[in-house]
Structure formats: C-alpha cells, structure tokens
Amino acid sequence: MSAAYLVCASQRSGSTLLVESLAATGVAGKPEEFFQYFASSSLSPQPREWFAGVSDPSLLDLLDPTDPGTVDTRTTDEWRADLLRKGATPNGVWGGKLMWNQTPLLLARTRSATGSVRTAIRSLFDGADPLYVHVHRPDLVGQAVSMWVAVQTRVWRGDAGEAYHRARYRADGIAHLAGVLRAQDQAWRDWFAAENITPLEVDFPTLTKEPTKATARVLEALGQDPDLAPPPPLHRQSDGRSAEWAARYRVDAAENGYPL
Description:
This protein is α/β, with parallel strands linked by helices.
C-alpha cells in the first residue's frame, strides 16, 4: 500500500461529499464507512439505535423498527483483508471514513488489547499512521436537522425525493441528535490533541462551496495529481424545509435549553 487516509467526521458533516469526490478520481482509494457495521447484525446503526435511552413512544414511532440482521462470522484477519482490498485503488492508495461513534466497533474488530484507537488504526496499516482528514460542520443545528431527516427516511446520500416529505419535525428528536453529534466532534478534537496529531482540516462551508478545491487538497497531501479532482458528484439533500426547521428549532432550543 503506497498511501492511506482516514476521513474522521460525524454524520451529516459533508464527509460523504468529500469521499465520493475522492473516489471519483480513481486514484484516491475507494473510501467507504467500513467501520459502521455491527458484527452482531452486519448492519450499521438503525434509526432507533440512535435514540438509546429515549422512551417516548410518540418519538420512537416515527422511526423504523430495528432489524436483527445476521451475525458477521469473519475473523479479524478476514475482516481486515476485506477492508484493505475494498478500500484500495490499483495504484495502492487506500481510503476510508470513520465516525467517532464507530471507534468501539473498530476496537472490537481489531481486538486491540490496549483499548487505544490509534493502535487499532495503525494495526490496519502495519503499524503506520494514515493521513487523517478531519471534516467538521460548524452549524450544529443544520447538521442535526439533516440527521433527524436521515434517520426518519433512511436516505443518507443523494436526493431523498418523496421520502424526504415523510419526515416530521420534532424539536426533542433534533436536540438528542445535536447532543450526539456535538459530542462526536469534540471527541475527535480531544483525540487529535491528546495524540499530537495535526489533521488536514476540511470544514463544511468550504467543502460545499468549493468541493473540487477541497478534494484537490487531499489529493495533493496523498502525492496524487490535484488536477484530477472532479466536479461535485452529489446534489445537496436538503431543501427549503430544512432551513425552516432549523429556524424553528433555534426558537425551541432557546425556550427549552436544547443544544445549539
């Protein structure tokens, strides 16, 4: 493997736009969210699993029931081999994406005895660090609204179409997710500081305004031709209602002490 990178983010931060752009170059790996799948179900977190500890049935009824899935029986070595194969392009560059809430799954999969996230990551790459790319979204409210829509519709990329209009506004649902997302981003910042890592920083406003330039920066850091950065491969998922919900939530948050 000639180079590896890991996009470190929280959900609805713009990380999908970045990794889809990198994948489209054909020289920057095939970055996917390899670490999101529970071995117990072979599935990523399902809508109600984002609301652990929430018991309000009127909120939970807006979310699909949980599918038990099937157990992933691969060994650690088999899982690692699959991950490295699926994430690499023929030139040897590997790409992947990791959310902070997935780090326990990473530790379990790699069987890291130390409990160190960095050791677990390094174990994938023969003891070396990948390039760390930190994608973050300063607008927590917009991020949480987007997440609330996604968990209701189960549409995580591209245009949600008619499914988008099945989503219902709930200030407490958005607030719960805002707390989860804020904690994830802070965990990444704390971890980078504790490990003395300076990641390549990509913020949501810049990424959505100039995605080609953001992709080119990562390509250059990987030693690849930045001119291969393509036009943006995705359309924004939100519509005018997202802005309306964000404004409405800010009022509700001020009245109820919800995260902002």
